[in-house]
Structure formats: C-alpha cells, structure tokens
Amino acid sequence: MTSSVPATGSTAASGARAGSAARAPQSAPPLGDRRGLTAAGALLLLLLLSILGALLDALVSRHQLWLLFTIGFVLSAGLSAQRVHREDLGTSVLLPPIAYAVVVAGASLFSPRGRAPGLRQHMLDASSAMILHAPILLGGTLLAGVVALFRLASRRHSRH
Length: 160
Hints:
Radius of gyration: 24 Å
Distance between the termini: 64 Å
Strand content: under 5%
Order of helices and strands: HEEHHHHH
Structural class: mainly alpha
Number of domains: 1
Helix content: over 70%
C-alpha cells in the first residue's frame, strides 16, 4: 500500500515555508538597535573610548596610562551600562574588566619598557601594569554596577 501525495501539496507547503522565511523578522544587529547597545556593542564602545584615552595620554602627557585613560575608561564603563539592552545589564558589569585587560596588555606592549625582548618580559610588564592601575578598573566596574543597579531598580519601580 502506497499512498500518493499530490505534488501540489508539497509545492504549496514549500511555498508557504519560503514565504514565512521571507517574512521572518531579521535578527538584531550585532552592535545595537533602537533599544540600545548589545553586549558586543557595549564592549566595542568601552574598548574604543579606553584606547582613545590611552593614545591621548601617550601623545599629550607622555604617561602610558594616566588621567585621560582613566577618564575615558570610567566614563565609557558607565555609558555602556547606561546604553546596553536591559537583558544585557548583568553583562555590562562584566565588560569593564575584559576591556581593561585588553587595553592595559596592549599598552604594555607599546611602552618603552615593553620593547624588551622575550615573552616573559612582556607578561611581567602587562601583569605589573594591571596591578598598578587596578583602582581604575575598580572605579569603572563600580560605576557600571551602580548604573546597572539603578536601571534595574527604576524598571522594577515603574512596574508597580
């Protein structure tokens, strides 16, 4: 016993699937949309402003990571927590340590002392820079945490 399925039925079903696939909502842009930044967009904002501050410090003050890096990092940590999607608020508090590690490690590679040969010396320079500039990391992470908590509290308050 074989059952025959009309050819038009399968064509109609595939046509319906093709039509629904064409009408399916597009995925969200990887960096942000009208609701704000995605976690990737917030990390990119944090990295760009921190790198800009580090570069300005190197050009203007001849310090590797000093005042302009501190301002850029801390403000971008707060701004990224403010502009990130609500569902990514927890991630926004984890992004400053990641960006900090990337920028400080990169800056240690380009420092005059970082030009010494050997991977071991580069690792020591990056480690000591991360330790010496830890208050900057703490400030940026705390600001991101406070902004995230304020946004969560205002969201819960607006529901009641």
